Amino acid sequence: MRIGILGTGTLAVALATGWARTGHDIVIGGRSFERAEAAAKASGVRARPLCEVAEHAAAVLLSVRWEGVADILQAVGAPAGALAGKPLIDPTNAVDHGIGVLRTESGRAAAHRVAELAPGAHVVKAFHLFPSTHWSSLSSPAAVVAMCGDDRRALEVVGALVRDIGGVPAVIGGLDRARQLEEVAGFVIALAFAGIDPRSAVPAVPSPESNGGAPQS
Amino acid sequence: MRIGILGTGTLAVALATGWARTGHDIVIGGRSFERAEAAAKASGVRARPLCEVAEHAAAVLLSVRWEGVADILQAVGAPAGALAGKPLIDPTNAVDHGIGVLRTESGRAAAHRVAELAPGAHVVKAFHLFPSTHWSSLSSPAAVVAMCGDDRRALEVVGALVRDIGGVPAVIGGLDRARQLEEVAGFVIALAFAGIDPRSAVPAVPSPESNGGAPQS
């Protein structure tokens, strides 16, 4: 499958490398073509001018810092519908660095803003909880990738991409659950930067058949 | 320390039992005095009429289902200030059972509602993420109890109570972080009821000294 990656950072490189390894055709673009070329070289894939990244892509990964989301979506023509009909993976964390407070207004998700900026795109929140180092290490244990979105076909496409990179997809609902997933990232960030393993702050469910691990509701 | 427990369910019994074991003086009250007596007997502590539970307590645990929060706070005179100045531990999850969607309105936390219903009380969100079975099993590994609140002294009191029950307290901020903690509970509930171990869906931080486990912000 052809995957267009918007962004040139460590998550872009980690996922591009892993997806290329399983046979996907990856193109990377960024605001700086030099950085896109460097990221493509590091991943063993191709760089393309930003305006061409989405063109033939069957799925698009929006792998930029939150501050750059509006700019890069503008640059690829997303507001004019350039990503319409495509799965658009949103791994962004609109979070104050090291504190874990979300920057988006109360009740709103970063993913909602992404959806507004890319009308018609099938936004899927995913890949926002684990650090890029998780995906670049071949020895990482399988991670469950919690994700949400409104388009079933897009969720299937992204679910397959999660498996291709060694993860286990877990759809927790529609895009209305994105705020919850983003708050979890804020929680993870707050604990990690305080030197606390986030895993020690959530319960383990002893058996996949048991509901005994759930807190009372 | 004298601790008043409002509620007679499994979490009330688990925490009462553990706290009594470390020498605290526990009284339990509920809407039904018979159930309070049964819970007290199961915990090895004393039952008291609801109106007396908070009276001499140095801290109060609000251990009822979300639907019963307003009623029980009313019954102890919290709206009239009966809990003013006391640490009030809020472990409630205002969450649709098995789905993990929060019932409180967008951007609002259950803990904010508790604070409104108990003017002057020092509300501390805590003990809402791990199931009661965690605290009733002597063989449970140490859990980090993420908590938040606005009163430093109340956070210290609750932190000590977390340690007394075998947990590790982690204050992530003021009561304005309660919504985030409650969303994490929704996430945990959604995964657990789907048969997925919530721990596999959050990253492990390899070293307490490292920030390498945090996702990009």
UniProtKB/TrEMBL annotation, chains A, B:
This protein's record includes keyword Oxidoreductase: yes
Coiled coil: none
Gene3D superfamilies: NAD(P)-binding Rossmann-like Domain (3.40.50.720)
Entry keywords, A to Z: Oxidoreductase
Alphabetized Pfam families for the sequence: F420_oxidored
GO MF annotation terms: oxidoreductase activity
Superkingdom, natural source: Bacteria
Domain Pyrroline-5-carboxylate reductase catalytic N-terminal positions: 2-93
InterPro entries the record matches: NAD(P)-bd_dom_sf (IPR036291), P5C_Rdtase_cat_N (IPR028939), STEAP_metalloreductase (IPR051267)
Keyword Ion transport in record: no
Protein name: Pyrroline-5-carboxylate reductase catalytic N-terminal domain-containing protein
